């Protein structure tokens, strides 16, 4: 007779079932990865090909485009777009975290009058659709000449990430035991030491998580990038969307290769930050 | 110099060790730390908002040079009386409604599946969470490929039964479904995460007690499980409603609002009005109406967050 | 209804939590599983309930093997350490919860709930949610919910561990009273010996997955079977002094050499005669069976008062001669001075002798 399981535990049977469901759910992503390794003909084959001879050509095409007439290959713009995406999101998220951490510490430890109202306004700026601010920002950038510059988009993304950083980092500060800070004060630490020596080290992991989530949100951003980057500062999502509008038909293999390249860091992040994921995607409003 | 002025007696900024010390006084520490972030937010968010608020009262087009004239509330009037606007709101509501409901159902079922401990759980969870971490653009691009009438997977699958190529995006209904499925696929893991958090927060001994007390499956769910997840479900609904309300990228890439204007969400519509028709002021007025909706929803959301925090405590 | 455990074993991976224990609990008997944390007592209880599955061995309820039955099919009632009250339900609904599985009508359920509420004086709090209850009230509701049905047996997991001292005393009496009214096999898991000594008909002392001794509260205290039980039961703990048997002055008077050169001649159990001189033993004597005297006596040891802890009516003195720490409880009026050189006398017949295998030597 099969023994009933302990509550909340399941065995390999459940693994099999969940594995099947997960695979079905994951299928669209899997298909992208498969497409990345297909030749152009295989990618658009009817009926769809599940088994094929894999090729790395698409990944090469991301960086080098072989010209049709001669055999010579020519560098594509994609390395630049990758650089832009990483540079712009990295810089702006780092900036946002520095500013956000200071503010989060203040909101957590030195509540102002109307603290909750400020926090609400700050969260609203994050919740509001980009379309609401994009119109005046577009005009503003045109006037100041920030349009198409790194400075412009970095500044904008910094602002875009600040509310998120404040809320998320504040949720980490709120969890610290204030007794430790009081103990440090009793031992003669001044406020700067309390912040840098006591509080900050305790939330380092949280800051890292905030950085990573900010990075993902930012390099995935499309609308601002579409309107406010130029040829030189274009980011990957915009470049991908533009590839869609190509005249020779869409090169899905190339797009798939790009998505696949981005998939690797995403998996690492999802695996490492599984416990912080919920907090990350709700801007720190739901901790557990 | 008979007596120090009252101001000096109170201690002018300079007495206490200079401006820096004055600035660093304990009572100013909070505002001081908040200031840099707020300044950036003000410059990049609040100020543009105020500007566009101003614009919405003038007759201004970004592609023209003429001096804008003051028109008062005319654009708000026009926007609110525009049947197109109401139509787009309706489209948005349909997409938001169906997508959020679908996300709830799928997310909930996925959460039930992952609420137990089983071998390889962490790995499988990663597979399911992956869509949420993709960019809207990648999701859009690939769902467009899947929906493609000739070599798209969906069409190929359907045509094995019908023999006909299947054009999902050809009909308004199909296009909306296409958008909803793509969005719900991407964000069901979000709902799953929230529900899962609720499910794992149920103390195991309650289930044990229910087992000893011979509670039926349904009673156990109703009296133990559901109370632990209901506040999180509400949070999930509100959060996803706010987010889906902004839906732009996926629509822009998969259907560009078509066929006709069948899938033109309010965000896409505003984008068109602003950057294709260059009716800057009208789009600003429209943006303000959207902002109002989002503020209301965000308020509700934070209220729900507070309530849950009290529940958990 | 009886409970019987036969060679019951539970392994978690490499760890053996419960190691082939045998135990019988008679109809209407209250048995306490007593032991330090991690000794396997809760695991044993959970195996009886069916919440854990035995790795090997059998659980018998009313003579029927129930190993393969789910908890719901074993008809047991259990009260949990953290009460496990359903937070979204009122007290009345919590009490009624086990009755829905019985297929009773609404009127019957109401009568039963009222009856239990009367016994446990829950009347004023019937409409409250668990979150609004004090610890003691939660405990009452948990007990109420477990006694509302008519199960084969009752299981209590650390029922009083979350209450403060005063409430604990009160509830101890109350639970005992309720249990006497029920007359069913009952197992109570506790790490608090006072709880076990006062509530149980018999106590099973567990250590590291093994039952060290099963006996009535009186016997557990007076006749510990081995060193562990001797040291575990009783506060302050029994003094355990390593010694060597040197000879016999009479049939039941033996001499021992205590480490450090002191010797001791005391009345012992006749069975000690079995041991050969030179045998390594441990002498156990309870702090209340020692007497502080100022003259050298043959049936005592000399030592120095190290620390004095007043305990109200009594005084606990820690003596230390540099080798052994000896605890003595005296009447509070006994004059004691720290750093004084004194002697402690063993009261006749109070010493327990344990052999090299840590087993008591007793007839």
Q: How would you sum up this structure in a few lines?
A:
The complex is a heterotrimer of chains A (288), B (313) and C (363). Chain B has helices spanning 6-9, 18-23, 26-55, 74-81, 83-114, 121-133, 136-147, 153-162, 172-201, 204-212, 217-245, 249-254, 266-275, 280-312; strands at residues 58-59, 69-70.
The CATH fourth-level homologous superfamily of the largest domain in chain A:
MetI-like
Task: Report the radius of gyration of chain A as a whole number of Å.
Answer: 24 Å
Largest sheet, spatial ordering of strands of chain B: 1-2
- How many beta-strand elements of chain B? 2
Looking at CATH, which topology of the largest domain in chain A would you report? MetI-like fold
Helical content class of chain A: 55-70%
CATH class annotation of the largest domain in chain B: Mainly Alpha
Give a structural overview:
In chain A, strands 1-2 form a two-stranded antiparallel sheet. The model of chain A has no long low-confidence stretch (mean pLDDT 83). Helix content of chain A is 70%, strand content 2%. Chain B has two domains: 55 residues, no CATH class; 231 residues, Orthogonal Bundle (MetI-like fold), CATH 1.10.3720.10. Chain B is 74% helix and 1% strand. Chain B is built from 14 helices and two strands. By secondary structure, chain C is of the alpha+beta class. Chain C has two domains: 230 residues, 3-Layer(aba) Sandwich (Rossmann fold), CATH 3.40.50; 116 residues, Beta Barrel (OB fold (Dihydrolipoamide Acetyltransferase, E2P)). Chain C is built from nine helices and 20 strands. In chain C, the strands form four sheets. A six-stranded mixed beta sheet of chain C has the order 6-7-8-3-9-10, sandwiched between helices. In chain C, strands 13-12-11-14-20 form a five-stranded antiparallel beta sheet. In chain C, strands 15-19-16-17-18 form a five-stranded antiparallel beta sheet, with no helix packed on it. At the A-B interface, α1, α4, α5, α6 and α7 of A face α3, α5, α6, α7 and α9 of B.
């Amino acid at each position: 007779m099969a023994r009933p399981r302990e509550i909340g535990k399941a065995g390999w049977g459940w693994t099999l079932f969940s594995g099947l469901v997960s695979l079905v759910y994951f299928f669209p992503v899997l298909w992208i990865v498969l497409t990345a390794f297909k030749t152009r003909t295989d990618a658009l084959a009817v009926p769809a090909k599940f088994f094929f001879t894999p090729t790395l050509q698409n990944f090469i095409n991301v960086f080098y485009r072989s010209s049709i007439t001669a055999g010579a290959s020519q560098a594509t713009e994609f390395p630049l777009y990758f650089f832009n995406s990483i540079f712009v999101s990295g810089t702006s998220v780092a900036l946002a975290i520095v500013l956000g951490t200071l503010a989060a510490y203040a909101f957590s430890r030195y509540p102002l009058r109307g603290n909750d109202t400020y926090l609400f306004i700050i969260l609203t700026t994050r919740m509001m659709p980009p379309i609401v601010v994009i119109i005046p920002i577009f005009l503003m950038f045109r006037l100041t000449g920030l349009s198409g510059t790194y400075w412009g988009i970095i500044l904008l993304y910094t602002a875009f990430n600040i509310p998120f950083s404040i809320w998320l980092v504040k949720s980490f500060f709120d969890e610290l035991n204030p007794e430790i800070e009081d103990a440090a004060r009793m031992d003669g630490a001044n406020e700067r030491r309390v912040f840098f020596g006591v509080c900050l080290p305790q939330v380092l992991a949280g800051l890292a998580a905030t950085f990573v989530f900010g990075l993902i949100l930012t390099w995935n951003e499309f609308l601002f990038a579409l309107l406010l980057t130029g040829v030189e500062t274009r980011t990957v999502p915009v470049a991908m969307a533009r590839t869609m509008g190509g005249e020779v038909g869409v090169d899905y293999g190339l797009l798939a290769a790009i998505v696949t390249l981005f998939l690797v860091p995403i998996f690492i992040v999802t695996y490492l930050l599984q416990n912080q994921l919920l907090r990350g995607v709700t801007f720190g409003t739901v901790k557990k | 110099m008979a007596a120090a002025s009252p101001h000096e007696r109170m201690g002018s900024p300079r007495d206490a060790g200079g401006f820096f010390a004055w600035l660093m006084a304990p009572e100013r520490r909070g505002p001081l730390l908040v200031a840099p972030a707020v300044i950036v937010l003000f410059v990049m968010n609040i100020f543009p908002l105020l500007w566009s608020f101003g614009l919405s009262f003038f007759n201004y087009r970004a592609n023209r040079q003429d001096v804008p004239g003051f028109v008062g509330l005319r654009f708000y009037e026009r926007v609110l009386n525009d049947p197109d606007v109401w139509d787009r709101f309706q489209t948005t509501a349909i997409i938001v409604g169906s997508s959020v409901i679908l996300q709830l159902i799928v997310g909930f079922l996925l959460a039930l599946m992952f609420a137990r401990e089983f071998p390889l759980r962490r790995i499988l969870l990663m597979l399911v969470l992956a869509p949420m971490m993709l960019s809207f653009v990648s999701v859009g691009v690939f769902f467009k490929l899947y929906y493609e009438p000739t070599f798209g997977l969906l069409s190929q699958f359907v045509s094995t039964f019908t023999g006909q190529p299947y054009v999902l995006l050809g009909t308004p209904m199909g296009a909306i479904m296409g958008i909803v499925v793509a969005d719900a696929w991407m964000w069901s893991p979000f709902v799953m995460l929230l529900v899962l958090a609720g499910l794992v927060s149920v103390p195991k001994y309650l289930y044990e007690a229910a087992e000893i007390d011979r509670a039926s499956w349904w009673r156990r769910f109703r009296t133990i499980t559901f109370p632990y997840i209901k506040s999180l479900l509400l949070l999930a609904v509100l959060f996803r409603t706010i987010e889906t309300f902004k839906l732009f990228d996926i629509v822009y890439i998969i259907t560009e609002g078509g066929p006709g204007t069948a899938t033109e969400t309010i965000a896409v519509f505003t984008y068109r009005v602003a950057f294709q028709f260059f009716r800057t002021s009208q789009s600003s007025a429209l943006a303000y109406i959207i902002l109002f909706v989002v503020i209301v929803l965000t308020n509700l959301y934070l209220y729900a967050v507070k309530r849950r925090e009290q529940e958990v405590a | 209804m009886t409970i019987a455990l036969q060679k019951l074993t539970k392994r978690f991976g490499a760890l053996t939590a419960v190691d082939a224990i045998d135990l019988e609990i008679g109809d209407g008997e209250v048995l306490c599983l007593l032991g330090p944390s991690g000794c396997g007592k809760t695991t044993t209880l959970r195996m009886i309930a069916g919440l854990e599955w035995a790795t090997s061995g059998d659980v018998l309820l009313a003579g029927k093997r129930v190993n393969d039955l789910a908890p719901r099919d074993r008809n047991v009632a259990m009260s949990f350490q953290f009460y496990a009250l359903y937070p979204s339900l009122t007290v009345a609904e919590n009490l009624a919860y086990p009755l829905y599985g019985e297929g009773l009508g609404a009127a019957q359920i109401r009568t039963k709930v009222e009856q239990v509420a009367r016994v446990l004086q829950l009347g004023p709090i019937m409409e409250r949610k668990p979150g609004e209850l004090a610890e003691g009230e939660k405990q009452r509701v948990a007990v109420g919910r477990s006694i509302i049905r008519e199960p084969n047996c009752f299981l209590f997991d650390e029922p009083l561990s979350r209450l403060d001292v005063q409430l604990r005393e009160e509830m101890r009496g109350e639970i005992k009273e309720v249990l006497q009214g029920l007359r069913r096999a009952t197992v109570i898991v506790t790490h608090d010996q006072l709880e076990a000594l006062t509530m149980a008909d018999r106590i099973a002392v567990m250590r590291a997955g093994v039952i060290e001794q099963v006996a009535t509260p009186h016997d557990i205290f007076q006749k510990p079977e081995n060193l562990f039980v001797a040291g575990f039961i009783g506060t302050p703990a029994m003094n355990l002094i390593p010694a060597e048997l040197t000879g016999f002055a009479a049939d039941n008077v033996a001499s021992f050499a205590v480490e450090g050169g002191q010797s001791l001649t005391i009345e012992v159990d006749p069975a000690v005669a079995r041991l050969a001189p030179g045998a390594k033993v441990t002498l156990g004597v309870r702090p209340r069976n020692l007497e502080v005297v100022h003259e050298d006596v043959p049936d005592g040891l000399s030592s120095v008062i190290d620390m004095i802890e007043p305990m109200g009516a009594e005084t606990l003195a820690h003596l230390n001669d540099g080798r052994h720490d000896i605890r003595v409880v005296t009447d509070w009026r006994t004059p004691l001075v720290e750093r004084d050189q004194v002697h402690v006398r063993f009261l006749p017949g109070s010493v327990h002798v344990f052999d090299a295998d840590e087993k008591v030597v007793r007839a």
